[in-house]
Amino acid sequence: MSKKSSLGRGLDALLARPAEPLPDSGPQVQTLKIGQIVQAAYQPRQVFAPEALAELAQSIRDKGVLQPLLVRPRAEHFEIVAGERRWRASQLAGLTEVPVIIRDLGDREALEIAIVENLQREDLGPLEEARAYQALLEQGLNQEGVAQAVGKSRSAVSNALRLLSLPEAALRALDAGQISAGHARAILSQPDADRAWALDQITTRSLSVRDAEALKRERRADTPIKVNPPRAYRQLELDLSRRTGTRVRITGEDRGRVELNFGSREELDRLLELLGYAAEE
Questions:
Q1: At what angle do helices 107-120 and 126-138 cross, to 10 degrees?
Q2: Number of structural domains, the chain?
């Protein structure tokens, strides 16, 4: 099965073909001045390679914009839903107008379309993809809903979101292309205390993903890793787990942390309410 046909509802369903009337409202291709169009804050793709933009701009000079942008109306302008790269290249090419399809879309549907378009073109980096999924979660979807919207398995969405828990230095390295998503997952497989060390090993030794997965920090015999919580806390973990309805883990002794696990946004909301947290209106 091709990549395009496997992605959620696909752009043919979400966007419709430019040459045909869209379902229900049936708007056609129109023309807007470039100055009337603005980029969207939720745009999942953040990196636009200058060389590729220059090539597209030259193609647009020669042949024009072959695929209309998808935009949605805002108060005083139109916001790009799909086609920001074409919009940027059109400006480089000196165009003053571009073809568009105008649709009245809500935030969630606009974000879904933007993500699917970029995934079909393989334009998103691993962190851009993870942040896009996180944005859909913040729109009220759970992980299963995100997976259905973008045509991925729930495990693929979950694995992508895990990248956001990388240490800050590893996030910067992944964003910069110094490590791959495979390297990042190898770092996440390490104990928390060893993740900075693993990143250093990968970057300084130019390790392959397989070598990164095999990393194991050698420790002196007199500095063992404490894996299990002190015995005194085990009963407390059980008591808290029963009280909160989720798994609770306590690490450390005189200093440490308490971890509460949740499997969905709804479960997180329940835990926050149990802890007395109320979001500001």
A1: 160
A2: 3
Give the residue numbers annotated as catalytic, written as ranges: 84
Residue-wise pLDDT tens digits, 212-250 = 999 888 765 555 555 555 556 777 877 777 777 777 888
Residue 180 Cα to chain centre, angstroms: 15
Half-sphere exposure of 111 (CA within 13 A, CB side): 21
CATH code where residue 107 lies: 3.90.1530.30
Listing DSSP states for 25-73 in one string gives T----EEEEGGGEE--TT-S-----HHHHHHHHHHHHHH---SPEEEEE
Token pair for 1: 């099965």
Cα separation, 161 vs 147, whole angstroms? 12
Residue 138 in domain = yes
Contact 110/147 with Cβ under 8 angstroms? no
The residues facing 98 across adjacent strands are 32
∠ CA 214-168-181, nearest 5°, is 45
User: For residue 166, is it within any domain?
Assistant: yes
Q: Are residues 8 and 97 located together in one domain of the fold?
A: yes
Instruction: Kindly report, residue by residue over 235-245, the tens digit of the pLDDT.
Output: 787 777 777 77
Q: Are residues 99 and 177 in the same domain?
A: no
Residues of the chain with pLDDT under 50: 1-25, 281
Q: DSSP character for 228?
A: S
